TrEMBL record:
Spans through the membrane: 6-26, 38-58, 64-85, 97-118, 124-143, 169-190, 196-213, 225-246, 252-272, 279-305
Cellular component, GO, one term: membrane
Signal peptide: none
Keywords, in A-Z order: Cell membrane, Membrane, Transmembrane, Transmembrane helix, Transport
GO terms under biological process: transmembrane transport
Membrane topology listed for this record: Multi-pass membrane protein
Protein name: AEC family transporter
InterPro entries the record matches: Mem_transp_PIN-like
Compartments where found: Membrane
Main localization, broad class: membrane
Pfam families for this protein: Mem_trans
Amino acid sequence: MAATVTVVFPIFAVILIGWLARRVSFIDEAAVRGLREVAFRLVLPALLFSSMISAPPIDLLGVATVYFGACFTIFAIGLGIGRLLGLSLARSTMLGLNACYGNTLMVGVPVSVAAFGTDALPPILTIIALHSGTLLPLAGVLIEADAGGRRSPAAVAAGILKGAGRNPVILAILAAFLWRATGVTLPAPFVGTLKLLGAAGIPLALLVLGASLPPPDRGALGIETVIAVSLKLLALPALVFAFGSWAGLPSLPLAVATLAAATPTGANAFLLAHRNDELIAISAGTVLVTTVLSVLTLGALVAMLG
């Protein structure tokens, strides 16, 4: 238990510090925006690239198949439940997305590294690299179709994929994969520079996450939030673990994939709902609740899998 507290508590304490700093106006929105830019355009890409090029080899295809097989299953379940409740296609889609789209970068990376060391990076970075390029286009097409938008489903998917292709974090991960394939060793001075720059990545990302969390909104904590939270924090990790065990994944990638599945809902989920205030409120509520409750679920998983 003490080891679990040592791993999980500091991560969520830093998130809480960021949240409180923003709530009491110790830092303003402009400062949060600037810190976010520094984190995602400089320090996190440096951290991920330098860590990935020196990480041990792993069955990345197996990890991706297990993880996203479970994600698409939970997405379909959430979508189906929404339709059974009489929700619109867009609202049902957001329910499904909230239930499977996790904050694998800002929470998954620090938790995995704290629990298992840098050997955990290849599987978690594989998940991050494919996360936005698979789940967001699917949800975006369905939301746009329900909204009767003028853009075709192909145009919506292409736009989302284009945005993901410009994401510095994803580009850094892909560049690291390509560099590893060459078999060339990066000169020590460059490795040292990247590690020095990347050292600020995890604490800065956690502070930004906390400062970016929405304030509590009682109106957004209805049945949809309860369903999405239950699917995200309980059903998805259980399904990833079941799929991975059945597929014979080694213990480390299985543990990392399960932890990634238990991360709170990612903020990018509700950005898709920007044209609908009701969808934004519900999704933001899910992000907040899953972030708070994941302290318990991630702590329990670290104790079980560690």
